[in-house]
Design goal:
disordered N terminus, Sortase, Chain: A, mainly beta, globular
């Protein structure tokens, strides 16, 4: 089974936006490991820990193991159907902010690169800490993988 890799860069200032993000996800009773929040495309999805059985691209947004400190890769389907969680990634632009919210921490990322590469079941990522990668099938360039690269700009623990 091919997994799509995504690192999502979440951006959050330690000021007023922290409360907005807290409120957006506080009413969910799921036991998510974290939340992906992309304000520019009105996207909020929970994702499970890497060892959870529900952490599967055929069920949810999926967290992939990066083996790089503080680097997250999130993957999901795009296209049609109820599993097309990342269909709107194609509307993202450099400079857009992305947030990853965990229990007592919200990381804010800024998109620094958007690229497409041939779909092989693997993606190339930089061996750097503090990244978020989001990946899905490229809806414009068929047979390719869309890769959104973001870098950590703020880490708020509260």
């Amino acid at each position: 089974m091919k997994k799509l890799a995504i690192i999502v860069l979440l951006l959050l200032t330690c000021g007023c936006q922290k409360n907005i993000i807290k409120n957006e996800v506080s009413n969910n009773n799921e036991k998510y490991y974290g939340y992906l929040i992309v304000p520019s495309i009105n996207m909020i999805y929970g994702f499970y820990d890497i060892d959870n059985d529900l952490n599967n691209v055929d069920k949810n947004v999926t967290l992939l193991n990066s083996n790089i400190k503080n680097t997250y890769i999130l993957a999901a389907h795009s296209g049609t159907g109820h599993l097309a969680y990342f269909n709107d990634l194609r509307y993202l632009k450099k400079g857009n902010k992305i947030h990853l919210k965990f229990e007592n921490n919200t990381n804010e990322y800024e998109i620094i690169n958007i690229r497409s590469e041939p779909k092989t079941g693997k993606i190339k990522i930089k061996n750097e800490e503090n990244q978020l990668i989001l990946t899905t099938c490229d809806q414009i360039r068929k047979g390719n993988q869309l890769i959104i690269e973001a870098t950590l700009i703020d880490d708020c623990t509260y």
